[in-house]
């Protein structure tokens, strides 16, 4: 019985150990050709909107503006967590309020900051007025 319990414990420890090493890769592949990443970003809205929007691409250091828009919209591949991706276009309200927070978070991730550090900095940024919540409903 003692030997059977030892085997079960060893198997369980082995499973836990292997589960910890199976860290998922980020969903956003920076090795995709630039044009493919632009297409993915612009897929968030109809061409009539995304074709005239400011476009940001995610790079190793965070988001980089690659095109200045003319319609008040801004498009990114949003990563509210490091493991997801969501092509998103913000209207003018979101571009001036929500987008700066997303750009900041990704820049801090690239610097290696933890989720807790980033959250604390974001909270402080809202308190000090560096970041502003949307003042009205918008289109995303």
Structure characterization notes:
The chain is of the alpha+beta class. Helices cover 46% and strands 16% of the residues. It contains six helices and four strands. The protein has a four-stranded mixed beta sheet with strand order 2-1-3-4, sandwiched between helices. A hairpin with a 2-residue loop joins strand 1 (54-59) and strand 2 (62-67). The longest helix has 20 residues, at 2-21. The relative contact order is 0.12.
Treating each run of at least 4 consecutive H or I residues as one helix, how many helices?
Answer: 6
- How do the strands of the widest beta sheet line up side by side? 2-1-3-4
Give the uncertain stretches in residue-range form: 1-27
Q: Per the principal axes of the C-alpha atoms, what is the gross shape?
A: globular
Mean pLDDT: 83
- Encode the helix/strand succession as letters: HHHEEEEHHH
- Ends apart, CA distance between termini: 60 Å
Strand content: 15-25%
Helical proportion, percent range:
40-55%
Radius of gyration: 20 Å
Structural class by SSE content:
alpha+beta
**Which oligomeric state applies?**
single chain
Tell me the number of strands. Answer: 4
Number of domains: 1
Largest beta sheet, briefly? 4 strands, mixed
Please describe the structure with a list of short key phrases separated by commas or semicolons.
6 helices, disordered N terminus, alpha+beta, 4 strands, 16% strand, 4-stranded mixed sheet, single chain, globular, 140 residues
């Amino acid at each position: 019985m003692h030997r059977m319990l030892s085997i079960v414990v060893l198997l369980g420890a082995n499973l836990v150990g292997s589960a910890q090493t199976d860290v998922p890769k980020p969903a956003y592949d920076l090795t995709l050709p630039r044009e493919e990443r632009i297409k993915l970003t612009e897929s968030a809205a109809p061409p009539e909107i995304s074709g005239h929007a400011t476009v940001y691409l995610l790079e190793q250091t965070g988001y980089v503006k690659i095109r200045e828009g003319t319609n008040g919209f801004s498009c990114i591949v949003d990563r509210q967590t490091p493991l997801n991706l969501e092509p998103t276009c913000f209207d003018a309200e979101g571009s001036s309020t929500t987008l700066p927070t997303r750009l900041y978070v990704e820049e801090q991730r690239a610097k290696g900051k933890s989720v807790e550090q980033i959250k604390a900095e974001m909270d402080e940024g809202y308190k000090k007025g560096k970041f502003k919540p949307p003042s009205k409903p918008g289109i995303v």
